[in-house]
Amino acid sequence: MAFATIKLKSKNGETREAPVGFSWTTFFAGPFVPLTRGDWKWSLIMLVGSILTFGIVGIIFSFM
Known about the structure:
two-stranded antiparallel ribbon, globular
């Protein structure tokens, strides 16, 4: 089964491949996923959103 990926290129020329589609990891682990990747800003956004919407925003972030 082949997964869809997208190639991202930063301003300094570094490229990365990122999978596209539903993220079961984000669905179950929520704000801890960006936290383990060192992305403090999105971890905080997901945590605040989860608190304000009682976890419903987790479903939305799983598709992003």
